[in-house]
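Before going further, learn to read the protein records used in this course. The integers have meaning only within a learned vocabulary of local backbone shapes. To see the layout at work, look at the sequence and tokens printed below.
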Amino acid sequence: MDIFSRAIDPHRPVFARILSYARAHKESLYLVGGFVRDIYLHRSKKDPDIDFCMRKGAIAFGKGLARSLKCAFIVLDEAHGCCRLVTREGSVTYTIDIADFRAATLEKDLSLRDFSVNSVCIELSGLIECEDPASSVIDLYNGRADIKRKQLRILYKNAFKDDPLRILRAFSLAAVLGFKIHNESLALVRRTAGLLKDVSQERVRDELFKVLETGNAATWLGALDKHGILEVIFPEIRAMKRIRRAGKARIDVWQHTFDTVARLEELCCRLQRNADVAGYMAACVGGGRSVYALMKLAALLHDAGKPRTFRYAQGKVSFYGHERIGSRMVTDISRRLKLSNDEQRWMSRVTFMHLRPGYMATMAAVTPRAIFRFFRDAGIESVAILLLALADERATEGYEVVEKIRPRYERLIFRLVRLYFARQKASPARRLVTGHDIMRLGNMPPCASVGRILRELDEFQAVSKTVSRNKVLCYANKLIRKYNRGDSYGK
């Protein structure tokens, strides 16, 4: 069985229904782009993205096909005749894009695509009905040769000007496929990188996260930085680059940032063998983006607040409060990238709390109360904060206090990670005293102070070696008396 038959067989019913509809309407459809490229790379996706092109009338054709398939239909670009269908067969979801030729002929249309590896195409009838589909492949621009060489090559000199997102897509495709970018294409990247600022943030975000989802994001983020692209996406990093080699520690904020991303990737790779951590990293916060990718974005931006808090006095460097400033900056960046509200909160909290484990490691003894408060404040971001903190510590050199606590720091991080998952699996503790109990004992109306007292009781119950309802009630009475005196709680 040839590579085309192997690739198509699982999806043959869908392709056959599309071909049947095209035949009934006397239209020729050409399969082009990533699906064809991936056949040669022996890659497959559980939920395939399928791109077709046709001479003209793609939107009207797609609307009719959607009715035939009884699936969702949206217009992507009315001016250029492009639409999308989303259909489901069993457990597989197909995203099908259909577009008009971008020129008068198929040959000219293929010449206007982004990279040669995406210009290889095959007519749908040849793919489904030909005994040797490979003989029906149309490869006018040596795309198959570039696939074999594992290189990305643009097809024409104005490719990046026509769609500046291709500048970033060159790197995201190279990162995902393990390709290199052709030297002439890289030279053009350097000359046109500034055009990327005019691309919608949603499109930039999606390509950026393709890089972050790979296991080699640190290398490709470095390449993006080398070619001036990262500063276009994140203008905030220019200030980070200006803080270089200051003080006895010879601090270089930007190099430390990259080292943190690399250390985090190494750490995540090793911890993938742990089912709990692997499941945590694979989970999505929102928008289909994984915790694994968000952690690397947080690592890239975790010190964004340092330039605004930089102080150099008597040979010493300080960045007091950079986590608070950075948290606000990261929220603004996340909003600019059109991340979901949950992702914005996630990024903000991880940035704000990334120093907290370090503070705990400097304590004479890490008390149950300190651990309870960390997990209470960190919530579901706990493991992300701990892993970022550990990567941050491993990327830090030249600080005497860090060197002194390093072994203890590492033991604490892994202890807290284990404890987090143990607590997740355990049954939640039942409150021995409720809000109604507090209102009755203190003759209090429903108010914010009831919630504050409840939170203190949760902490008391969690850290007490022996606990009973009477013991918690006694402590509740003490807190209520504080409330009545007004020294801790207000209405």
User: Anything to note?
Assistant: The mean pLDDT is 91. The chain has four domains: 1-148, 150-233, 234-425, 435-485. The chain is about 60% helix and 10% strand. Residues 435-485 form one domain.
